[in-house]
């Protein structure tokens, strides 16, 4: 029977988010008796202090040079060269999220015994909580019509992802708004100015590159490829005139015309 684990990850040492986004798996140092099909939740340490990734162990006892070359994701190359010794396991990404329900403070109230430092087996209470709350339906809850669109191959990985994967991803959304802020890029609305505290941190994100132009070598740039938009403008950006979705500039012109 598969075992459920928590391991920790330091975001100041390695860019786990981009590594998972670009390749869908990471070859991770094997520091416990992991087995294929084990479920591994990854806790991201300070300043995030939250569980962000759910993975499945697909391979164990891997060794250099039979590892994916991930040098570009290490923030400190000295640590990279130290990391290539020993045994590794392959963690295939199931889901990645950024949700307050999975913060350390909340997890400590739901079965976690302390801040994760190394591989820890998950007790039944915590596992039930994680399974019930580990979803990335942030925008599905408020914009479900986007989910029904067609799918395409991404990054050469043999799995299907929806057209609006980045628009629905809570991690992609956070990276986008951390850079651009919460004002709509089309109409400039900020929901805090209208609804006060109720509108805090509310905004959609829009993926600027048409999906048919995304090739297998594509890697999302959260600063250039994603922008914040309000739900109304987001809906209009996904409507088509003559079979073509409007650009941000075209939608701004339509808005200014009214």
TrEMBL record:
One of its GO terms (molecular function) is nucleic acid binding. The keyword DNA damage does not apply. It holds the Pfam family HNH. It comes from the Bacteria. Keywords: Endonuclease, Hydrolase, Nuclease. InterPro entries: HNH, HNH_nuc. Residues 184-239 form the HNH domain. This is HNH endonuclease. It comes from Mucilaginibacter myungsuensis.
């Amino acid at each position: 029977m598969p075992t459920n684990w928590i391991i920790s990850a330091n975001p100041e040492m390695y860019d786990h988010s981009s590594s998972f986004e670009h390749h869908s798996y990471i070859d991770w140092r094997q520091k416990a008796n992991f087995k294929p099909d084990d479920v591994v939740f990854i806790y991201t340490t300070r300043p995030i202090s939250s569980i962000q990734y759910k993975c499945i162990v697909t391979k164990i006892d891997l060794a250099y040079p039979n590892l994916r070359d991930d040098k570009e994701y290490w923030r400190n190359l000295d640590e990279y060269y130290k990391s290539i010794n020993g045994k590794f396991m392959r963690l295939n990404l199931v889901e990645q999220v950024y949700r307050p329900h999975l913060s350390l403070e909340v997890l400590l109230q739901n079965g976690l015994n302390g801040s994760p430092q190394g591989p820890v087996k998950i007790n039944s209470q915590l596992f039930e909580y994680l399974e019930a709350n580990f979803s990335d339906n942030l925008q599905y809850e408020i914009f479900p019509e986007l989910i029904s669109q067609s799918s395409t191959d991404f990054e050469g990985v043999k799995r299907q992802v929806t057209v609006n994967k980045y628009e629905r991803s809570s991690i992609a959304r956070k990276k986008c708004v951390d850079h651009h802020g919460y004002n709509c890029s089309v109409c400039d609305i900020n929901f805090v100015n209208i609804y006060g505290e109720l509108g805090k941190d509310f905004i959609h994100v829009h993926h600027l590159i048409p999906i048919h132009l995304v090739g297998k070598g594509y890697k999302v740039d959260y600063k250039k490829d994603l922008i914040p938009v309000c739900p109304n403008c987001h809906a209009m950006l996904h409507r088509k005139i003559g079979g073509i979705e409007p650009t941000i500039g075209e939608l701004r012109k339509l808005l200014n015309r009214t």
